[in-house]
Amino acid sequence: MLKEHLNTFSQHQTPFYAYDLRLLRQILDTAKAEAGKYGYHVHYALKANANAPILAEVLQRGFGADCVSGNEVKCALEAGFPAEQVVFAGVGKSDAEINFALDANIFCFNVESVQELEVIQELAAAKGKVAQVALRINPNVDAYTHKHITTGLEENKFGINTWELEGLVERFPSWPNLKLIGLHFHIGSQITDLRAFENLCLRVNEIQNWFEARGLVFPHLNVGGGLGVDYRSPDEKPVADFAAYFAIFDRLLEKRPAQVVHFELGRALVAPCGNLISKVLYLKHGQKTNFVILDAGMTELMRPALYQAYHHIENLTSTLPVKTYDVVGPICESTDCFSKDLELPETKRGDLVALRTAGAYGEVMASAYNLRDRVQAIYLF
Ligand SMILES: *Cc1c(COP(=O)(O)O)cnc(C)c1O
């Protein structure tokens, strides 16, 4: 399917990201329709991909923005997301970032520690403002995903632990510049075993009941993101099962009548539409291993080096019988390897290769290590 764009690809300097905006629209429309069935609010997690043409498509569908840095808040506002649809999470918000978000009147700070509450109180008081906050609670729920992208276990740095809540509830009256509007959860990423979300719902219910027993009912519940995509067969199911995902929350989450439920999706919305297109520089034949050396490396797509992530690799040029290769990048690191023992059609210098499903956490993580040029992007309409 990608092969139909071979002509376009051959006119650009490799490596580059190619984004299929048609597929992006199809995914966004599906997510919007499925969330709409239950009146759910979806915020797009900018950290997955913050390219302007992608943000424009997201914005057109009325999604909000989920940000994890001051610059992401700034980027979201500049892209046109209304401040009242911007949420701001992150364990280490600096004073400058908090002040910026206060000045912008964002919808909500998702607060990850007791000390952060104290700091936001102090900074908001200095401005004579009231900051809307939600408590990001660490629910100790396993996401059944790679340990490097699990965030909702006690051992992870994210969120406030439940045993801290008792003391926290007592202190809230002494923080007049904070308005506690909700609870927030985000247990991890690339979650494909949907039972993790069922477990999350049950934990959220327990925690919500705990607050209610203390006289606290919140207008907002934010259950985060994390829905996974199929990296193995990118052409078979490019659209994640949003219907099944949202239905779980409708079935299990004990939403109070006036409550608004929020989601923060990144990967499932943008991963499938992105491909890293690279050219084969060299073939190197060892005793045991044949290496394909690409002109793209971990500087363009860090996920395999960072957390052993799998990306489907396709030789767009060759139609020869398959051989077995290790596919590596040009960077001076042994972890700069995209795949080992991979079967590809016999590959030659100059062939174009696609690393699929790279639209999320790909280009945004690009680095200049080895003084590499910044990777470019093209858009397929
Ligand atoms: C990264 C992140 C998300 C999005 O996660 P995905 O796995 O891309 O859906 C949502 N919420 C928070 C707080 C995050 O840090």
UniProtKB/TrEMBL annotation:
Cofactor(s) the record lists: pyridoxal 5'-phosphate
Limits of the Orn/DAP/Arg decarboxylase 2 N-terminal domain: 36-271
UniProt binding sites for substrate: 267, 303, 307, 333, 361
Pfam family, one: Orn_Arg_deC_N
UniProt-listed Enzyme Commission number(s): 4.1.1.20
InterPro entries for the chain: Ala_racemase/Decarboxylase_C, DAP_deCOOHase_LysA, De-COase2_C, De-COase2_N, De-COase2_pyr-phos_BS, Orn/DAP/Arg_de-COase, PLP-binding_barrel
Residues the entry annotates as binding pyridoxal 5'-phosphate: 226, 264-267, 361
PTM annotation (N6-(pyridoxal phosphate)lysine): residues: 47
Pathway as given in its UniProt record: Amino-acid biosynthesis; L-lysine biosynthesis via DAP pathway; L-lysine from DL-2,6-diaminopimelate: step 1/1
GO molecular function, one term: diaminopimelate decarboxylase activity
Family: Belongs to the Orn/Lys/Arg decarboxylase class-II family. LysA subfamily.
Protein name per its UniProtKB record: Diaminopimelate decarboxylase
Coiled-coil region(s): none
Keyword Transmembrane helix appears in the UniProt entry: no
Family matches, as HAMAP family: LysA
Active site (catalytic residues): 332 (proton donor)
Keywords: Amino-acid biosynthesis, Decarboxylase, Lyase, Lysine biosynthesis, Pyridoxal phosphate
Binding partners and assembly: Homodimer.
Domain Orn/DAP/Arg decarboxylase 2 C-terminal: 16-359
GO process annotations (BP): lysine biosynthetic process via diaminopimelate
Primary role: Specifically catalyzes the decarboxylation of meso-diaminopimelate (meso-DAP) to L-lysine.
Reaction catalyzed: meso-2,6-diaminopimelate + H(+) = L-lysine + CO2
